[in-house]
Amino acid sequence: MADTSTIARGGGSSPAPARGRRGSAPPRKPSGLPAWVVPYVLLLPGLVVIGGLLLYPLYQMVAMSFQNVGLRQIRGVPAESVGLENYEKLLESELFWTSLRNTVVFAVVTVALTLILGTVVGILLHNLSGKMSTFLIVGIMAAWATPAIASAIIWRWMFDAESGIINWALNALPDWFSELLFGRADWTGEPWLNDPFTIYLVLILVVVWAGFPFIAVSILAGLKSISAELYEAARVDGASAWRTFWKITVPLLKPVFSVLIVLSTIWNFKVFTQLFVLAGGTSNREAFNLSLFSFTQAFSAPPKMGMGAAIAVVLTLILLVITAVYVRQIVKTEDVR
Amino acid sequence: MTAVGISRKAARGHQQAKKRKQLRRFGLNAAAVAVFLFAVFPVYWMVTTAFKSSEQIFTTDFIPFPTDPTFEHVERVFTQGVAGHSIWKFLMNSAIVALGTVLIGAVFALLGATAVARFRFRGRTSFLILLLIVQMVPAEALLIPLFLMVRRAGLYDQLLGLIVVNVALTLPFAIWMLRTFVAAVPRSLEEAAWIDGASRFTTFWRVLFPLVAPGLVATSIFSFITAWNEFVFALTLINDQGSYTMPVALRFFVSQRSVDWGAIMAASTLMTIPVIVFFLLVQRRMVSGLVAGAVKG
To answer: Does the keyword field hold Membrane (chain B) (predicted)?
Structure first.
């Protein structure tokens, strides 16, 4: 066949550009398309979806944050620009600052707790015998796989004031012990989901419970990739287990940790479903985080979508700044070139 | 010291080491059981509550498992249902949304992944970085503009609107994950087919596709789970109760004045079990997809 040489080129193994616009006879592929067009044709549906349904809304979100978008605008009246008014109002609103505080504190605490618990369990999995390891992986998989909505509902049931098992368990503790730990012995009818502080305690538990299995399994995968010879060498040199951990395991797992930190940060910064269920919708304003605050502004009557968009912009900016560093890390380690 | 003494001492040392090893193993296994219980108990509690009688549910006592298991709650969510619709309706809605997302998403992802993994072209690196950055943008932030767009397109209250949104939400990760599977197929196979005169489409369909199929299944199950679990968009884009998906129906159930925990747990169980099964199928691939590059090997 005449065009075998261009086939190899179209495949991309040759450094020469695949765009064949040389001379009068552009190289043709069996399908009749010029070679350089093919990847773009393949990419087109994906680009349309990502551009139209992710990038364009992203632009819209920013644009709307400078506009007044209420009920009339939703019905089709063009929105008028209000400049920085939404942002000014936002910075003055107390609710914004409590939401921001809730978001940040929650994210820091849960990222730290999930990573610690996940790492410990990952190392545990690595040291278990084959059968025990499989047993535990299947177990933690159950927590990981449970849909966010279901996990929030289950924990809400377990923390139920009247018949919840948590209040039963706390009552079942010996009185002196409970007294020592919490300063009280009677937990009958304790309502956990009224007060923002205890709502967040339960929320942290729910999110850590659902989040640590992924960290553990990833850490396990990372540990398995470290050559046993390194540990052997360290052992021969008489290094202690602690020192081996810090000098071999941690440095080699650093890329894994970076990715895991980014992913958990992203996930925990915008927790919505679980909070929505635990806080009982949008009525408990003290318990808002930025996602819930934005949602409430935009979708409860009267809708203030411009304001909601401004909050979403703040949330996105924080996330992009935090993760920019790590995107660079991934770009460096992955072959994206 | 006699030779016997030395060997006895060595034996004692050996025994001590063995004992320490056993103790270590015991400690590790005990920790494993504790973590296992922490992870599994809530799921166990959901399933058992679904099968307990109402007297055993609404009690301040601890009843570890249903002593007289009943199907009344499961039956009730099917016959009486939620908001005037059988739970069957919501399961079907969720299945339609998830399957629709998977079918459209799989085709788009496969095309995109092939482009990225098989061709060098101008803009390729930018596209890959774009995929990464887009995944960092919180979907919740896009809620407001997407809500307005869906409304304007006349897809409000329609499952199709949810499908479109879910395709957008899952596609970047699907392409990102699938491209490693495509890249893993040796290029020489396709070249051989080309040399034999196969058209580009035949090569793709008869050579590349069968080899990438397992990866496509894993990616699709991931998208299925995401769409099946999706809550925020289903909550905002659907108003008509007959079009609720499972997560929204569950949340509606919980928000009612008298909370019927038996029925809620039965419904939650029905929603959760398929996901857990799927999950066990693809778990390994999902991790490698998410932390790809960071974990080598």
So the answer is: yes
